[in-house]
Amino acid sequence: MASMSFVRATGLAAMIAGILGVVGAAIHPPTDDLAGIADALWIPSHVLLWAAFALGLFGWVGVRERQSGKAGMFGTAGFVLLFLGAVGVSGILFDAFATVPFIAAEAPSLIQTLPSSSAYLAGAPALLAFIIGGIVFGVAIARSQVFSRTAGLLIVGGSVFLLVAAVTWLPEKVFDAGIIIFSLGQVWLGRSVWTSARLTNRVTS
Fold it and tell me: In 3D, which of 163, 197, 190, 188 has the Cα closest to residue 177?
């Protein structure tokens, strides 16, 4: 079992990741086309979202640790999908601020081909794994009674928003709304992990 200091640190990481996710999605440009990429907020929003997903990996470990043994195989499967998907999405977001703006500036015609490119298509399974993992793990969180049911439902709701937006090509802001809802659940879970670990430290000290 992980030490309470470690678990508490993961809770803090989850809270920070959730806050970064909310801000990053809120300031995200309304489109992903050339106009959106040229927007002054494109790079800051994707830096924040990348940091949210990368730091969130540490946070999810703590959430899983706190409900270990109560989420069952269903929760474990959701966690694995969510974690692996987040790793892949982190890579996509890194490219979004480190590579895409320079491609758009030097070879704007290539941006039009990105949706059919091998790199874009390779990222689709990662996003799908993250979304499905979010739904499954969120349901497991809501059912386990270790955390607030509402926190788990926020994870589920945000993931459903992302799924609908991804498969129906709804406006970008619908996708961003899903990230915000998901991230609010992440903040809630992080605070619960951080608080419970602190209380456990006080009892055992």
Answer: 163
Q: Hey, where are the domains in the chain?
A: 4-204
If 0-12 CB within 10 Å is exposed, 13-18 middle and 19+ buried, where does residue 151 land? buried
Q: What is the pLDDT of residues 10-26, one digit of tens each?
A: 999 999 999 999 999 99
CA–CA separation, 199 vs 148, rounded Å? 17
R_g of the chain computed on alpha carbons: 17
Alpha-carbon distances of 140 from 50, 105, 131, rounded to whole Å: 25, 44, 14
Question: How many other C-beta atoms can be found within 10 angstroms of the C-beta atom of residue 158?
Answer: 26
CA distances from 142 to 16, 17, 116, 146, 178 (A): 22, 20, 37, 8, 18
Q: Taking the model in full, what pTM does it have?
A: 0.90
Yes or no: say if 10 and 193 are a contact pair by the CB < 8 Å rule.
Answer: yes
